[in-house]
Amino acid sequence: MIARHAALVALACGCASPGPSAVVTLATDLPPCRLPTVRLRCAYEWDGVSPRDTASCEQVLYRGSSLAEVQLPASFGLRGDGSGRPLTLAIDDGAPSPILRRVARVTLPQDGDPARVTIVLRAACAEPGAATAERPCAPGSARCTLSQSCEQRAMTCGDEGACRAVELRADELAADPATVVEAPGLCDAGTPRG
Amino acid sequence: MRPRRLHLVPGTLALLLLGAPALAQTVDAQESPATQGAPARGDEAAAREAFERGVGLAEQLQWSAAAEAFEESYRRYPRAATLRNLGLAHRALGRFTLAIDELRRFLREARPAEAVRQELRGLIEEMTVQLATLTVITSVPDVTITLDGAALAAGEPTAADPGDHVLDASAEGYTRSARTLHLTRGEHRRVELALQRSSGGVLSRWWFWTIVGVAVAGAATATVFALSETAPPDCGSLQLCLSP
Fold it and tell me: What is the average pLDDT across B91-97?
């Protein structure tokens, strides 16, 4: 309680630090017609997949070239509460049952420069495939995307288009934004939109 | 169902959509304000300045500040064209109920070209399917319910933006109830409110909670001010900072 009061006093007098944070660069090799919407969500004590009822953040980005839309790659900030708990960030296509989702769990640095994280949503993660022993799908599903299959194994589909752990390694908190991929701007003429 | 994309030609239609050229044209043409009671010319000039500031902020994807600038512009000189930009800014912020209302008012009052109508109708349709529906059920008589400060009728389905909300309920003789609520896209949520009878004392008095509310709001404002004065966080190229 005393610590909480001290923090409030520190904030009120203007001598507080901005708290732990990260800058996340988001990129994809999927064109906007295949991934028109990107949903960002974050929460503590969350697996990134289950429905949430606790306080959390959510923002939907619409990809495109108008001023109301965003072009990838782009970056955004992530700020923690200073508790040192791992923060879960989930980035998906915004669908009720996402076919593409990346979950990243990160412990934000308590001091110093913000962490720099790069997340790439790969087309390979959204590719559907038949369920096999090595590539399981949800019970009762004969096919699923690689992203969904990764989640069946408590993993997530990573920057390289392969299953990986959701926890980010320390060396991934100082990513070089120059390595992100450019999203192709056009879709095939025959690709259905909307 | 995936949201529809807005197809625009970069740099031309995009600017038209945001309305910077439209402002100069309509103001020069002495467009009447959308509401009765003509504002003074000084207000019109200030409205134009706020509008142009909003366009600049929108170009930098600073949607929250852009929306404030457009709101100021509309407050000073309520032109229908401003509603379009306001609606787009609120859409970018995920405030779909506001955005839908503003874009509908724009379509009704400004009567734009068919191509613009189609684009905006598509956006409205896209946002509408994302709205959640909240129905609050309670057996407490004469209860006052608010969602994020706006009045809400008990028993009636109400459209709400997906995301976090504060649901507040109060009634004479009952302990006030406030809870957070997370609504997902397209969700139909039914919430049953059971207020407890109060046992008297200061905690049951409306003025006590008003004072508490003002104090908390003041502390929050001071916090935001202090943080922004000391070290602005790095919110990336999108100028978007997420915080759980």
Answer: 86
* Domain co-membership, B31 together with B93: yes
Count: domains in chain B: 3
Domain that includes residue B169, residue range = 132-193
Q: Give the CA angle between residues B76, B82, B87 to the nearest 5°.
A: 125
The answer on B220 and B119 residing in a single domain is: no
> Are B162 and B226 within one domain?
no
Distance from CA of A87 to the nearest CA of B (A): 8
Chain A residue numbers touching B67 (CB-CB < 8 A): none
Q: Is residue B3 assigned to a domain?
A: no
Q: B108-152, pLDDT tens digit by residue?
A: 988 888 988 998 998 898 889 888 899 888 888 888 998 888 899
B5/A33 CB distance under 8 A: yes
Supply B101's token pair. Answer: 């209302």
Within this chain, do residues B186 and B213 fall inside the same structural domain, yes or no?
Answer: no
CATH number at residue B105: 1.25.40
Q: Which of B86, B230, B240 best tests the A interface by mutation, with the highest count of A CBs <10 A?
A: B240
**Cβ of B242 and A78 within 8 Å?**
yes
If asked whether residues B17 and B36 sit together in one domain, one would say: yes
Q: Please check whether residue B175 is in contact with residue B198, taking contact to mean a CB–CB distance below 8 angstroms.
A: yes
Q: Considering only alpha carbons, which residue of chain A is nearest residue B231? A: A18
Contact B17 A24 (CB under 8 A): no
Of the partner residues A42, A67, A79, the one whose CB lies closest to the CB of residue B18: A67
| Residue B8 at interface with chain A, using a CB cutoff of 8 Å | yes
Give residue-wise pLDDT tens across range B198-240: 655 555 556 666 776 777 676 665 555 454 444 556 788 888 8
Of B222, B230, B243, the CB nearest to A57: B243
Chain B nearest-CA residue for A177 = B236
Complex ipTM? 0.81
In chain B, residues with a C-beta closer than 8 Å to the C-beta of A193 are 4-5
